[in-house]
């Protein structure tokens, strides 16, 4: 589904690993179990035939941005005595009940009266038939209606773009999760698969695309064209797609055996080359990998770039849709991290053709069966095409470590969550548990089974469930055929999919280092003093300096109890590391001596051979174990010193993610101390990478590493970084033809904005308004948050609330207004408290305002700020309606953060200060040596 733009972004090092969620989060601990939103299963659709007449402009008595619709549903009762038909219909549809009919082919009598019952909350339309329907008999229902081409990027929705001075209009679709009911009356649940035929009566100057190719020749008359698309295979309604626009396409030649197209604005044609090439390659690789060609069941693959799109991308069968920034690549304007994201999003959506489209989760409770596999192949599928990007390594930090924080909180939920019923709950389950944890679980199972057994199981799973739906037990049955009794696969599968959270495995090695005692316990991010009854079946892997290998991820034991003893082949004073390449979804804590040996090994030449993924694991585990009170911060900061000689992107990415917590919580008066710590920590890696990119021959992950290193170095005052960034920005200001290397552009823009005041802000805002390439627009928008004066921060938020910033970009741009500069937090809060009513109008309600303000509250660091928030809620909270609870949840989070600060902040400050002590000690030793030589 919509790809959470949580991918491998540079922003991952400067913002939440959750990334860009498209739906408000929900507290999963307060869910209701009512299933009243679900449809009864006593009638199923066989097929839909829907005709849409859109009006992008007013036409006679038809208002602009509306449409007429007619749908014919062939439906079939699966029991005797059925006398009600229940459909999903959004309240935005107006049905002409006088024209609704239900007939049996052999009986011409209309079997439904024209007074059905509609329930707005559940979007159910209930027809009571005048006589009971016969089991397994096909009935044909015809419904005529009108609808709205919406402005909120859901259902059939509107989008615009400018071609020169002319505004162009188009309509596109986003049906997932519950928005097909805005398009037509239907059975809007994934399990109700049916054959679908789409017909469109449209202006002749417009082109249309849908899931299938056009059937026959369109019929044109009086500047209108009637286009019929071929009938789809059996599919869920949320996968319906339709685009009505003046777009153009880059396509394979007529008669090509694997038809493939990239659809976009005509002026963007030159930017479609990369997606066109890599898309074909990835699809071919997935065909081979899964031994089930996409073209066995679908005749074409179209991928479209949409100017306005709430999601990152969407896996509509045969017509994938994307934000422009996730599909259109420009060598001059697209960063390396964004090029990677384009390929990865394509792989994600194409993987959905098998996992989601061909075989669909039976209900959203099992969303991970769709999204977990798509996220898994987002990395592993892309790696089949882009072989030098270390994507398997990036996966561990971005996905596994990225979801750890959420899954250690009280608001987490199991991967298979039965308490998913209402549209809000359905939206809420499209989160990092279904995506990241689902993908990480799949990777764990793959390594646990070994020898490509999972791939063999998946090939069977897809063939057996093709054109139908699946529940987790269907996947488990396929995996069982490839597992032995030693794998304990039922226990492993069920404990990880049905339980919330994950364990920390504590390792205590005996004095002779011949035996390790393991103990598992659920990990909570806020405290080590918690108890819980959960036990996981954990595939245990380990390596020591003399036993096994970091390239061998074979499971040594399956830990199914609270305690386990493991025999080691080691000698005193040698390290042992558990969770090889972090293939298991758990943290590891060690006894004091074992930590000492590991940390000393990290500081050796070549880090004593410790694998890069385990180096990243150690960094991430130690920072979070200290945060929860498992280890002293002194141990964590001692380990972080090794980074001074680390050159690989992967451990540094893990470090930046953890260091983010420090910089968000540190008091303002400790910012300078933290800056000194960071410049010393970054010194060697900055020198190694350099400020200036080394061209196309440079390793991809070095480009990604430089972007992060420069961002942090310049932010915290690294002299050379600031000097060079200023030079680049000055060249840009003075020469309209000058081009800043794309991968350092974000840092240069940020430095220019932080130091340039109003003039720099006006300069970059003008560049944004004049820019037509989405990836460069995104870079500028994200960077504008680096501005840091009262006037420019106010101007930025004012601009966000206008149409100058597309709705899809408003949230991330607002978040960056305080994420890039801590001093902006107070400025943004002041703006919100003074302008919340204005924001509500611009953002379509107080729900979005509450979400925006909660993000700001989460950055507060003082008791005075907490009191100010409480005062605001007391005075203005009633205006937020139900959204007030979001503000109150943010207050609860802030209260805990302040408690945590009081418990641990002094230890962090002490650890940060030790960097200066190290520098002083080296200087003292040097002076002492010189004195001795002079003697």
Strand residues, percent: 15-25%
- How far apart lie the N and C ends? 74 Å
Estimated radius of gyration = 29 Å
The tally of helices reads 24
* Uncertain spans: 3-33, 917-935
Computed structural class: alpha+beta
Total beta-strand segments: 30
- The percent range for helix content is 40-55%
Overall 3D shape: globular
Residue-averaged pLDDT, rounded?
93
Characterize the main sheet.
Answer: 8 strands, mixed
Features:
globular; eight-stranded mixed beta sheet; 18% strand; alpha+beta; disordered N terminus; 41% helix; five-stranded mixed beta sheet; 935 residues
Structure description:
The protein is an alpha+beta fold. The chain is built from 24 helices and 30 strands. Strands 1, 2, 4, 5, 8, 11, 13 and 14 form an eight-stranded mixed beta sheet that branches. The chain is globular, with a radius of gyration of 29 Å. The N and C termini lie far apart (74 Å). Mean pLDDT is 93; it is low at 3-33 and 917-935.
Could you outline the blueprint of secondary structure elements for this entry?
Layout (H helix, E strand, L loop, with lengths): L42 E13 L10 E12 L4 E7 L5 E2 L5 E4 L12 E3 L4 E10 L5 E10 L6 E9 L2 E9 L20 E9 L3 E4 L8 E3 L2 E5 L13 E4 L2 E4 L8 E5 L8 H18 L10 E6 L6 E2 L4 E5 L12 H16 L7 E3 L6 H18 L5 H17 L15 H6 L4 H17 L3 H13 L2 E3 L1 H9 L8 H10 L4 E7 L5 E8 L15 E3 L1 E3 L12 E3 L3 E5 L8 E3 L8 E4 L1 H11 L9 H16 L5 H8 L8 H17 L5 H19 L10 H16 L3 H16 L10 H26 L3 H11 L5 H11 L6 H13 L4 H19 L3 H12 L5 H14 L7 H51 L1
Parallel strand pairs: 1-11, 17-18, 18-20, 21-22, 23-30
Antiparallel strand pairs: 1-2, 2-8, 3-7, 4-8, 5-8, 6-7, 9-10, 11-14, 12-15, 13-14, 16-17, 19-20, 23-24, 24-28, 25-27, 26-29
Helix pairs in contact: 1-2, 1-3, 2-3, 3-4, 3-6, 4-6, 4-11, 4-13, 7-8, 8-9, 11-12, 11-13, 12-24, 13-15, 14-15, 14-24, 15-16, 15-17, 16-17, 17-18, 18-20, 19-20, 19-21, 21-22, 22-24, 23-24
